Amino acid sequence: MRLTTKGRFAVTAMIDLALHGSDGPVTLAGISDRQKISLSYLEQLFGKLRRHNLVESVRGPGGGYCLARPMADISVADVVRAVDEALDATQCGGRENCREEERCMTHDLWMTLNFKMYEYLESVALADLVAQQLTKVGGDVALLRDARRCGSGARSRSLSALA
Length: 163
Fold this sequence. Notes:
Elements: H1 5-20, H2 28-35, H3 39-51, E1 55-58, E2 64-67, H4 76-82, H5 107-123, H6 126-136, H7 159-162
Helix pairs in contact: 1-2, 1-3, 1-4, 1-6
């Protein structure tokens, strides 16, 4: 039932991207250096995040990644699902064959826990985590710009306008 490094690193990388993306695309090498996450691992994660429309890539000089949606519209659950992270407290993966091909007595308990975990992760937006980080380092949350700078429709918005 643990959240593995895949999910943890994906969330961490998305926070970093949001924190550093207000001036344009952020390189994976930059995220790798700041967060001490392997560049090749980040490449795998960002491929999945891109396929789930959470990030956009920009090629060429000055290229990198940026958020595909406002950070207030990206939940932790979105990120965890995008990287194929399974948060499952059941032994059967929800198939109800927990005990010798039959449903165990605690199946409903663990299924409810699964639901509550995703419900909580769905309630936490990337913007919340970014604001929390800024508060820890004494940053001005009102000055943070939305990190979306890729694509034609991207425009900067302050976090306070998103909250």
